[in-house]
């Protein structure tokens, strides 16, 4: 076989591979939580380049995403908290099969970068830190923000709700670390994954003892997807070893 024939064969094979890849490429709609924004913004292009699939990722508060799905919105991939995913499975909003844990992140305290870290080593120390703070911020629990619900419950359990009310700024989503970085509030309570990427803030640590909460994000394929293989491939990618370092660098834990 001469060189010209070999070149023609190689070109034909390359064309076949390209047409097969394009033919199987899918647009994958993803519904997920704002807590995963920074990690998925880095991981999504890697998956797209590896597979040829196109991701359309919709970030919002987890409670908002769950309600949208219950009300009839559709997505190929859904990544919300474990309990929410189990609820959606009961509502037949997910394809049959096992749910896959992707990553988890604790609710934590943020302070401005460069200042001494306040003591939150015990529940009592955390209480005193909040009482002595000039101001704090967390997500409005009425809007369904997970960290805001945890923060509000913690403050109630500590018996300091009235003392904290006047110096608390509620935000609609994941903006508390930004307010800390700008110096608009002294402390913020948010998911660790929402704190770590923000320049000008430092992660003090998870809420202590019984006040602590780990948010486990779990992936599943939407019940009405037309792109089941691509959807499953994305979930497998996120829960696999290639994605783990990206999640860990953003304040998540993997292998849960």
TrEMBL record:
GO BP term (any one): molybdate ion transport
Keywords attached to this entry: Signal
Leader peptide range in chain numbering: 1-25
Organism the protein comes from: Reyranella soli
Superkingdom classification of source: Bacteria
GO molecular function, one term: molybdate ion binding
Protein name: Molybdenum ABC transporter substrate-binding protein
